[in-house]
Amino acid sequence: MIDVATLSVIRRWALREQLSIREIARRTGLSRNTIRKYLRGDAQEPAYAKRESRSRLDPFAEKLAQWLKTEAGKNRKQQRTLKQMHAELMTEERDILKKAAAYFAKQSG
């Protein structure tokens, strides 16, 4: 299977620049049958690999969901604002980071 960038180059050469399949095969180093297969569209389209990056909020996701659920049941005047929730999370995150730094210092020293 070829990557997305190679497929776009093949299509550009074939459709815009009107190069022959043989010339595209020479330039790319792929076989003519492979070039034909991807130009016909018989092959499955290659896709970029999905990035699996973690969010900074992942450790607090359950707590946030719980807070939002309890706040939704309250009166509008009694609900905490997002700024208040953010400030509370920041103090908790600082506490967690301090504990992690202390643990690391203890382990290394």
Sum up the overall morphology in one term.
Answer: elongated
Task: Give the termini separation.
Answer: 50 Å
Task: Output the helix-strand order.
Answer: HHHHH
Number of DSSP E strands: 0
Structural class call reads: mainly alpha
User: How much of the sequence is in beta strands?
Assistant: under 5%
Count of alpha and pi helical runs: 5
What is the share of helical residues? 55-70%
Describe the structure.
With 109 residues, this protein is mainly alpha-helical. It folds into two domains: 4-40; 58-108. It has helices at 4-15, 21-28, 32-40, 61-72, 82-108. The model has no long low-confidence stretch (mean pLDDT 82).
Strand and helix map with partners:
Elements: H1 4-15, H2 21-28, H3 32-40, H4 61-72, H5 82-108
